[in-house]
Amino acid sequence: MTRENLATASDTLESAADATEDDDAAERLDSLADQLDALATRDRDPDHGRLARIENALHDLEDTDVADQVTDAHESVVAFRETVEGV
């Protein structure tokens, strides 16, 4: 199912949080990973606004030392978002 993209993004961000040298980035990455994990397992799909906020947060983290992982997670969120109806 398409929510696998959200679960994949969550796992990727958890790995990035463990790999980064930046404590603030690690905290933000962990928080985003938790949010995506919750969205992947809840009963209904998240709306575009929620996903856009997550994408913006990921964009802010793309200049960290784990940029490749952040980009991979971002791509997974975009792939899921393309399946959400509306907007």
The overall average pLDDT, rounded, is 94
Largest sheet: none
Number of domains: 1
Count up the helices. Answer: 4
Distance separating the two termini: 21 Å
Order of helices and strands: HHHH
> Which percent range describes the beta-strand content?
under 5%
Q: What is the 3D shape?
A: globular
Low-confidence stretches: none
Structural class: mainly alpha
Helix fraction, binned, reads: over 70%
Task: Evaluate the radius of gyration.
Answer: 12 Å
- Tell me how many strands there are: 0
Characterise this structure.
The model has no long low-confidence stretch (mean pLDDT 94). 72% of the residues lie in helices and 0% in strands. It has 87 residues and is mostly helical. The chain is globular and about 35 Å long. The chain starts with a helix and ends in a 6-residue tail after the last helix. It has helices at 4-19, 23-41, 48-60, 67-81. It is built from four helices and no strands. The longest helix is centred in the middle third of the chain and has 19 residues, at 23-41. The protein has one domain.
